[in-house]
Amino acid sequence: MKAMISTLSLALSLALAGPALAAEKKADTSAQSAKPTAADADAFVAAAEKDLFDYTVESSQVNWVNATYITEDTDAMAARINAVGTEKAVKYALEAAKFATAPGLSPDTRRKLDILRNGLVLPAPTKPGAATELNQIATNLQSQYGKGRGTLDGKEISGSDIEAEMGNLNHTPAEYAEMWTSWHDNVGAPMGKDYARMVAIANAGSKELGFADTGAMWRSGYDMPPEEFAKTTERLWQEVKPLYMALHTYVRWKLNEKYGDAVQPKTGPIRADLLGNMWAQEWGNIYPLVAPQGAGDLGYDIGDLLTAQGKGPLDMVKAGENFYSSLGMAPLPETFWKRSQFTKPADREVICHASAWDIDNKDDIRIKMCIKVNADDFVTIHHELGHNYYQRAYKNQPTLYLNGANDGFHEAIGDFVALSITPQYLVDIGLLDKAKVPSADKDIGLLLRQAMDKVAFLPFGLLVDRWRWGVFDGTIKPADYNKSWTQLRTQYQGIVPPSERPADGFDAGAKYHIPGNTPYTRYFLARILQFQFYKAACDQAGWQGPLHRCSFYGNKEVGAKLNAMLEMGASKPWPDALEAFTGGREMSGKAMAEYFAPLKAWLDEQNKGKPTGW
């Protein structure tokens, strides 16, 4: 399978979970000077929810226009509306902290107060002008990314096209290096100073809320102390790290066989631009280079199957909808088809990075993509629709619960559904001839192809926020942004740039989620959770064969139990939601290890006598 872009759901949370906006004014100090009561807290929460509900509708509309029609005017509109949201979020966070000490709070009110206090991404301090400056910087960074260009053979190439070309195996190592370097130089480098300024403003806002820095604030939103959350993510990484190390060893050897010692040595890190993806976060595009002899040719490519049947972007989205409908979920509303962006317009600049939107917190759900007819986008569509169905499932929850149980849940829903895109599923929907379903002797190929995306992503999913946590707490200084980014990528992923990087560069900015200010640990959690969800669904469906061959397509019992979890939104701590669907209360890498166990045994056999690590 080709590499799947980790996607961002821009409407995933409330405005208070992102840099959002309104008129300049000092923080509201309306909280009573006398010690507040539980009734005061209840009234405060009710008023905040009404205000935020109304605001998020307008904010979503403005940001949708900005993302799908990038101009100086829409940039300015987005900056203004998002600055209002930042001020609202900070105001409510400060007041929530005061009400949190009221005696006799109901569990529901206490949870909502915690969400208000902990839900920010970029908090502006109450200093006049800070919210506007913060959001102007944030909007400009995203706009710069959306307009970004690299080069191939000296000719300018867009971000969407350069991602596709990085996965094109017909290019030479020199061409990969040109694309990688030009993208990082052109897109990332100009952002560095603005990013450092944005960090300073956000940290000042975080301190006003009682947090040591913005990173500490991010880690506080997981129904556990920040320190425990950091330990949990490290535990999960250690559970799956042996699988990654085995894959890294095998892939490095295959790349050496392909390119030779001068391009990719047999030892040390892997050259980042050789892995089929601009960020080396998923390696599925180079699967043909590493496919096991005899078992590696699966006999089909989803993109080729779609093309052979004359399927276009809308057909691909219809196929995704059909999966969810087969689980008993209602069809997407007509407005989805009228208002979504499915393909890249020819007449204007847009942000092509795939995302799912909930405009009105009810039924106006949409996706924004620049769909290409290939396997990558077929999977991405199933993922994005997972956000939309989640959003619709919890639409009747109070405003502050219009979110996933934790942010990893929101990403994992579509991912675990996409795991069900098995050969049998492709047969069931008429895309693959039953006679061409790979036999059991192809299982290692199937698993390796999945691992090139799912397993390869794990350390990247962890290090993005590890880097930002260091930036926010000051252990990584602006002068060391680039050096530390490269060091962390080598430490966790075992990769290096194709050439020496400038100290004053800003390679992190070449990854959308950095200028987009999207916490990234959610994607790491999603990689873990999706296998827990998938195993639970397969167990519920009574699946008896190898876990990786399971498809629960068409199983309405699974759909009903899944929807029951989705409907909870953020109303309960995430262990409650996890237990509702899987029966367990702890995130664990065991299901992922079970899924890939046959591959791990095979990799260990292939890697005998070969150097491991870097």
Can you tell me about this structure?
The chain is mainly alpha-helical and 614 residues long. 55% of the residues lie in helices and 3% in strands. It has 23 helices and six strands. The chain has helices spanning 38-68, 72-99, 107-118, 130-146, 159-166, 173-188, 192-208, 214-218, 226-259, 287-290, 302-308, 313-326, 334-339, 375-393, 407-418, 423-428, 443-454, 458-473, 481-493, 521-540, 556-567, 574-582, 590-606, and strands at 149-152, 155-158, 270-271, 355-358, 365-368, 495-496. The strands form three sheets. The chain has a two-stranded antiparallel ribbon. Strands 3-6 form a two-stranded parallel sheet. The chain has a two-stranded antiparallel sheet with strand order 4-5. A hairpin with a 6-residue loop joins strand 4 and strand 5. It is globular. It starts with 37 loop residues before the first helix and ends in an 8-residue tail after the last helix.
Give a quick summary of the entry.
The protein is mostly helical and 614 residues long. Helix content is 55%, strand content 3%. The chain contains 23 helices and six strands.
How much helix, percentage-wise, in residues?
A: 40-55%
Question: In one word, what is the shape?
Answer: globular
Strand order of the largest sheet: 1-2
Structural class: mainly alpha
Number of strands: 6
The largest sheet, given as strand count, sense and whether it forms a barrel, is: 2 strands, antiparallel
Strand/helix succession: HHHHEEHHHHHEHHHHEEHHHHHHEHHHH
Distance between the termini: 27 Å
Strand content: under 5%
Q: Determine the mean pLDDT.
A: 90
Helical stretch count? 23
Gyration radius, to the nearest Å?
A: 23 Å
The low-pLDDT segments are: 1-32
